[in-house]
Design a protein that fits this description.
By secondary structure, this protein is mainly β. The protein contains no helices and 11 strands.
Length: 116
Amino acid sequence: QVQLVESGGGLVQPGGSLRLSCAVSKNIFIFNVMGWYRQAPEKGREMVAFITSGGSTNYADSVKGRFTISRDIAKNTVYLQANSLKPEDTAVYYCNARSVQYGISWGQGTQVTVSS
């Protein structure tokens, strides 16, 4: 089984930054895609950003230019650098990993709250 453990969430003022981390229990190269999703209160889960095994990235329109997804292969960790945060970025952020071998895996989530 795959374990994904998120960290780095918290309370931040509008305009601030956070770096979320997702520690993976397997070599991240086995995953076709790894990404970040978020779910705000009373809303559905939405894709924020993802990175493929080849290193290609994609972002939701709402975060383009503000968020950056990256990975550290040696540490089996995926990051989400979130800058210029807005109140509407408030949500629980989930790490996601997809592979042929293990299917779809989710972390437990980390809360991000953007408020003054």
